[in-house]
Amino acid sequence: MRIEDVSAQVFRTTTRRHADSAGHAHPGPAHQVQMAMLTITADTGDKGYAFCPPELVRPYLLEKFVRKVLIGEDPRDRERLWQDLAHWQRGSAAQLTDRTLAIVDCALWDLAGRSLNQPVHKLIGAYRDKVPAYGSIMCGDEIEGGLATPDDYGRFCEKLVARGYKGIKLHTWMPPVSWAPDVKMDLKACAAAREAVGPDIHLMIDAFHWYSRTEALELGRGLEKLGFAWIEEPLDEQSMSTYAWLTKNLDIPVLGPESAAGKHFTRAEWIKAEACDILRTGVHDVGGITPALKSMRLAESFGMNCEVHGNGVENLIVTAVSKNCRWYERGLLHPFLEYDDGFDYLSQLGDPMDADGFVHLSDRPGLGLDINFDFIAENLVA
Ligand code: MG
Q: Buried-most residue among 13, 59, 158, 235 (CB within 10 A)?
């Protein structure tokens, strides 16, 4: 089996998510954005697909690095192809990112599953076929009735529990919200959430990422009183020592790193430095399913859980093939959006959740996406 072609198709998709000036998603009117589908084709006719923003598979990257590494190679040699692509990063002047590595790796896994008519979580070796989800709430905003006040968070958490979620994570207020960030307001939102859902629902927080040590400590100590399950990225992750300091000073589990560069190598350093209690990985943060699994097994070897960042079937698969991971992150969620509506380029939701809060893995071959190829063909960008 040899790779014959690597191509990207850019198409228009409709979304109600808008990014604010700092890049956080909030609800708004429906509008069109561009999305890319990466397709890897083998000489057997088998294909693998993965979706991403067009910039990650722009012609320069495909021509200069991805095709050079992939064309003519066996698509089943995922480890070597990943290593070869990762080697090109050093000389790419920061153009070839972990995000692009991740998309290529996902498409190769999809191709493997489709060619064998098997779902990827079964190919890797599943631990479970359904994973409990936590509802991951969008960042706070200034939208009336949205996520503008602590009570808004409390009301929304009640709704999420009624939908079936057994865990909820709050992203609190960050700039450009006019008065943010504010530790005391974060704690008020967390208290309102705890009050609304009672003691049995797992609550987590992902707060402003650039608090000082004293602010993060104040936040963490407040969350300990509210029985929160973890505190996530309240400090700039570039300073591992600061996380080691925070982890030592708090009883609440500290989770990380999510955004720090360095794939599974960085995660090994964090474990060694005792800079977190729960490790963090994510398919798009570390360069694919392949290195995400390495981080997951690394954590297991040290008796640690590793929680997976972000939604999507590729992240769902990593949670399903791991014992040392409690949750699938489902969202982002907002009172004015309906997550279960899905995407116009997929015929079915990739992460359907039942009334008990479990997301079920698909039996479809590959990553499990039910791609609407007609929609994509009709909405191609010239
Ligand atoms: Mg996060």
A: 235
Burial class (CB in 10 A: 0-12, 13-18, 19+), 162: exposed
Q: Distance, CA 169 to ligand 1 centroid (Å)?
A: 9
Each residue of 201-259: pLDDT tens digit? 999 999 999 999 999 999 999 999 999 999 999 999 999 999 999 999 999 999 999 99
Q: How far is the CA of 309 from the centre of ligand 1 (A)?
A: 6
pTM, rounded to two decimals: 0.98
Assign 295 to helix, strand or coil.
helix
Output the CA 247–ligand 1 centroid distance in Å.
Answer: 17
Rounded CA separation 381/371 (Å): 18
Q: What is the pLDDT of residues 302-313, one digit of tens each?
A: 999 999 999 999
Distance 289 CA to ligand 1 centre (A): 18
211 contacts 233 by C-beta, under 8 angstroms: no
